[in-house]
Write a structure and sequence with these properties.
Elements: H1 2-17, E1 39-42, E2 54-65, E3 73-77, E4 81-86, E5 89-97, E6 102-104, E7 110-121, E8 137-140
Antiparallel strand pairs: 1-2, 2-7, 3-6, 3-8, 4-5, 5-7
Length: about 140
């Protein structure tokens, strides 16, 4: 009983020393810079006739248009390979980019990246007209 009474008296004494009405106010500045959406424009990647047992290389340019008056950095993503098809037949296209993954847009918010495609027509590749598509993703860092 003495322990409980001591506890209650301690709670009352300590609770009287806490003043919850003291408060502090401050201001925070908030800024936001709304920028233009990125757009991309590209031309088709076209290979000429490819003889069997040979390699072929083709390029395409991807033009990027972003926010003006800033030199933003963007990340570019492409697949490393895609499967081109002619009906049930497939052929692997190997892709790479000259800019790797990062590109700094110029002062007008523009930039360009060259994408390289390589096809290996093995002597066992089935003759045909192969087509395919791949996604290019560009985003602000």
């Amino acid at each position: 009983m003495k322990i409980i009474l001591f506890f209650l008296i301690s709670v009352v004494i300590f609770s009287q020393n806490v003043n919850v009405d003291d408060s502090v106010e401050g201001n925070l500045n908030i800024t936001a810079n709304v920028i233009a959406n990125l757009t991309i424009e590209n031309s088709n990647m076209e290979f000429n006739d490819i003889p069997l047992a040979s390699d072929a290389i083709a390029f395409t340019d991807v033009d990027i248009d972003g926010s003006t008056d800033t030199q933003d950095t963007v990340t570019i993503s492409i697949p490393k390979t895609i499967q081109m098809k002619d009906g049930e037949k497939t052929m692997t296209l190997y892709l790479s980019s000259e800019k790797k993954e990062k590109l700094v847009l110029d002062e007008n918010g523009k930039g360009s990246v060259k994408i390289k495609g390589t096809l290996n027509a093995e002597d066992t590749t089935v003759i045909g007209d192969y087509t395919g598509t791949f996604d290019v993703t560009v985003k602000y860092d």
